[in-house]
């Protein structure tokens, strides 16, 4: 049986404030201590290793500066998306990169679906579709620019340009 391939690429860009929130929530969920403090500063590090530099003041006057690498940030983003009920596929290649506004989290997936119908007969390629009513047709009928088969958008069926 032949299959049809579907490729999906999702790119989620999170501002630095959202990434800080995600990292603090991840820290809280893992019984850390950073989430109890006050954030003093957060910045995106690019050299020598990309990541997030977070400065936090804990109770008293203790200041902690911690750098989170890309794998830790990705784990925090995935956790945060689950809490926010943003669906993410479990399968797929996941990458993260710093961008000017924060971090971009990308997920690439490929799904192979079984072919349910035989191939297209004639395999005629319509390169341009214009919404033009033909004579006696309703204004909602789309016809190909060359007068070939068209799609009736009111009934979602293929009709011939007869």
Structure description:
The chain has 162 residues and is of the alpha+beta class. It folds into two domains: 101 residues, no CATH class; 31 residues, no CATH class. Helices cover 17% and strands 41% of the residues. The protein has two helices and ten strands. The strands form three sheets. Strands 7-8-9-10 form a four-stranded antiparallel beta sheet, with no helix packed on it. A three-stranded antiparallel beta sheet has the order 1-6-5. The chain is elongated and about 70 Å long.
Topology:
Elements: E1 3-15, H1 16-29, E2 38-45, E3 51-57, E4 63-69, H2 70-83, E5 93-99, E6 102-114, E7 129-130, E8 141-144, E9 150-152, E10 157-159
Antiparallel strand pairs: 1-6, 2-3, 3-4, 5-6, 7-8, 8-9, 9-10
Helix pairs in contact: 1-2
Give the gist of this structure.
With 162 residues, this protein is of the alpha+beta class. 17% of the residues lie in helices and 41% in strands. The relative contact order is 0.18.
Which features does this protein show?
single chain; 162 residues; alpha+beta; 2 domains; four-stranded antiparallel beta sheet; three-stranded antiparallel beta sheet; 2 helices; 41% strand; elongated; disordered C terminus
């Amino acid at each position: 049986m032949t299959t049809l391939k579907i490729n999906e690429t999702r790119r989620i860009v999170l501002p630095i404030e959202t990434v800080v929130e995600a990292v603090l929530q991840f820290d809280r969920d893992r019984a850390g201590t950073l989430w109890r403090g006050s954030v003093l500063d957060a910045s995106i590090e690019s050299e020598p290793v990309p990541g997030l530099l977070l400065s936090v003041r804990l109770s008293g006057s203790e200041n902690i500066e911690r750098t989170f690498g890309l794998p830790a940030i990705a784990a925090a983003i995935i956790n945060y998306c689950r809490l926010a009920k943003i669906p993410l596929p479990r399968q797929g290649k996941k990458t993260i990169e710093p961008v000017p506004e924060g971090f971009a989290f990308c997920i690439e997936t490929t799904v192979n679906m079984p072919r349910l119908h035989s191939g297209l007969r004639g395999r005629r390629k319509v390169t341009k579709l214009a919404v033009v009513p033909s004579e006696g047709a309703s204004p909602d009928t789309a016809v190909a620019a060359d007068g070939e088969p068209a799609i009736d958008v009111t009934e979602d069926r293929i009709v011939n340009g007869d």
